[in-house]
Amino acid sequence: MELMMIQALRRINKGVALAVGFGLLACAAFVLTDIIMRQIGTSLGGTEEIAGYAMALATSWGMSYTLLELGHVRIDLLRTRFQSFGKAVFDVFSMVVMSGVIITIAIKAWPVLERSITNGSRANTPLETPLVWVQLPWFAGWVWFAVMSTLTTLAALSLLLKRRHAETEDFVGAFAEQETLQ
Known about the structure:
Layout: H1 2-39, H2 47-68, H3 84-119, H4 131-161, H5 165-172, H6 175-181
Helix pairs in contact: 1-2, 1-4, 2-4, 3-4, 3-5, 4-5
């Protein structure tokens, strides 16, 4: 069951990663168009602002994909000295810590969005973008990452308790170590 859930989360996150990638490509095309237009004496304007929004959204949504692809930085000096059970314990511990941090970020992101909704806040730029347009998907990305990391942690913990230590390696192990094992 745990591995089926992880596979489903991977499929969802691949779709999210594709959407984010297309969004970044669209942003790059917009910036490139603006650069070309500047050469002929005109400009679309707001490219810096829109690119900043795109990066914030890509970060909040991209973290979940990176988690299950083992792309987050890990310092696994101690982990490498242990056998399967010890490695699984370190992996679950790292996921508990990560989930705690991400849940805290998601909780702390809510007041930012709430204040923008309450005040009808707009960017202090020529575009005067309603901040809720950007902060709502940004917040949703952090919430998704919190949900994802929590589900991943619970799956790893479940496998650890069932003494299926080696199976946690594929979704919460250390990527660098996996590269050397193959």
